[in-house]
Amino acid sequence: MATSSLLTAAQALAVRLDRQTPDSAGVNWLSVPFARFGGYFRRQSERLVDVSLARPILFIVVGGSKQISTGATTLHHRPGDMAILPVGVPLTVLNLPADNGPYRSVMVEFTDTVRDRCRQLLADSPPVPPAASLTLPPDLAHGAALQQAMGHLLAGIGTVDPALMEHRLLEVLLILCRAGYGGHLLPAPSQSIATRLRAMVRLAPETDWTAETVARHLAVSVPTLHRRLRAEGTSLRAEVESVRLEYGHTLLVSRQVSTVAEAALRSGYGSPSRFASRFRQRFGANPSTLSA
């Protein structure tokens, strides 16, 4: 299914969802076996602060634009763009109507049952490097595999039996997880505080992650944060630095940056030389060899 066809199908679903009764957050939900689809509609600009979700959501913008901020990073989405809203990560969201119409988006919320099934299917698969952004890159979002899977999924709403709906949801989940979004879509049911910390830092590695900032986002006191991290055999500094180095490594290997200085800056290091030094200690190689 071509990109324009998927966007047209999503726009039609958004209009259909307008007929559902909105929940307390103003989302019009339609439940189907193993998932529910949400429609979001706003005629005026809207800014939501510290958005927190019970389950991860995949969304596609179908009208207007959406901005998502995590720390100092802001992601921009236009009609046809897709992204993941993860669990346990505070987000600031800005929904902006277009000049000629309202803001609209369609969301897919996968149930725990279908996500557990996806975990089982991926249990023996080799690990995949985590995606560098919540926004799906163009080659994934507009690639044939996801376009066709999403097209089949939307076409099946209210027309296929539960077994086939589960199959279509699993196809979308598997494509996304194999592209590095498993950590966002399939978080462990009960995560350690270190795991929650790493997930948060991974979304905005350049942010100044002080103990006070981290504790506030994780809803614990600073002493409790340090105590629980010590109990898990780690520390705030170690976890933040580990995530930053992993992120810098991903940027260099994937050629998303062309210089070590840029990788250092985007990874939260004010000093390229310190980044290079810590990089050598962690990976046993000079970052410049990866950017050459």
TrEMBL record:
Residues 195-292 form the HTH araC/xylS-type domain. GO terms for molecular function: DNA-binding transcription factor activity; transcription cis-regulatory region binding. One of its GO terms (cellular component) is cytosol. It comes from the Bacteria. Keywords: DNA-binding, Transcription, Transcription regulation. It holds the Pfam family HTH_18. InterPro entries: Homeodomain-like_sf, HTH_AraC, HTH_AraC-typ_CS, Tscrpt_reg_HTH_AraC_N. PANTHER family: HTH-TYPE TRANSCRIPTIONAL REGULATOR GADX. This is AraC-like DNA-binding protein. It comes from Novispirillum itersonii.
